[in-house]
Amino acid sequence: MSRDEPGPDCVELVFRGFYSVAPSGEVALEDYAREVAAARAASVLAAEDGRVRGVHLCAPGLATAALREDVEAFARELAGRGGGGLGWS
Q1: Which of 16, 51, 58 is nearest to 33 (CA)?
Q2: Separation of alpha carbons 63 and 45, rounded Å
Q3: Residue 86 included in any domain
């Protein structure tokens, strides 16, 4: 997967807010987004200040506003507990 040359089936879920998430939390967020979207791959989108601003998904089964809200809620939860943790699985 490459965000530099995304495939035609790639989408970006851009959050309404930016979230401070630790590296381990970013991995958990990518895993969560990939699973709930039934995507082939996922990668966090970082803002210029390093906070998470969304998730890039390749071949999502479904990319809706509800999906974005769900994934953003998980990012917000991760940020609220200090940015880390794998509590979703």
Answers
A1: 58
A2: 16
A3: no
pLDDT per residue as tens digits for the range 32-66? 999 999 999 999 999 999 999 999 999 888 789 99
Tally of domains in the chain: 1
**Residue in the structure block whose two tokens are 């998430």:** 21
Residue 89 within a domain: no
Q: Is 88 domain-assigned?
A: no
Does 16 reside within a domain? yes
Cβ-based neighbour number of residue 37 at 10 Å: 24
Question: Which ranges of the chain would DSSP assign to H, the alpha helix?
Answer: 23-37, 65-80
* pLDDT per position as a tens digit, 67-87: 999 999 999 999 997 645 555
* Domain span at 14: 10-80
**What Rg do the C-alpha atoms of the chain give, in angstroms?**
12
Give the integer Cα–Cα distance in Å for 55 and 13: 5
Give the global pTM.
0.85
